[in-house]
Request: fold
Amino acid sequence: MKKIAYIRVSTADQKHDRQVLGLGDLCDELHIETISAIKKARPVYEKVMRRLKPGDVFVIWDLDRAYRSTRDALDQLDILRARSISIHIANLGLDTSTPYGVLIYTFISALAQFERDLLSQRTKEGMEAARQNGKQIGRPRKLSADTLDRIADHLEAKEFTVEEVALQFDMHERSLARNLRERTAERG
Reply:
């Protein structure tokens, strides 16, 4: 029986340290991945799944480090249990090798999904409130409204092409075109 850990963070800016420290002494192997959980393909996760043998324990620091949703967590639990592999969530001391562990795992999965859904809802509501208050959402434009107006005038007079202007401002042509469309819509 091996305890094989899967450690994941979403971006290179995030650190694996907390998970490595928490799982290092508990596990025989640590597998680290830096990738968003929403990605369809997670090569390290898939490698760990192939590596697990009957009797092994799949160890994660927290449920959201491995699973995207309640359905995903429960489906994977069923798949692993069919292979005689249990899941251990280290920060909760939760082990699915017992009926009680499976019950708590099911509740935790639902709560994690609820938490993600609430966060998403609050984020959307906050963004909408900010938009209604005239705030710019997302990355600021590279070019000011005045610059976009001047570019539009030059393009209309056929003094430059979109390609030439995009190159001048170190932008992709589609980004420039989108910025120009948005500016035209703002002017009404």
Notes: Strands lie at 3-9, 29-34, 57-60, 86-89, 94-95. The radius of gyration is 24 Å. The chain has seven helices and five strands.
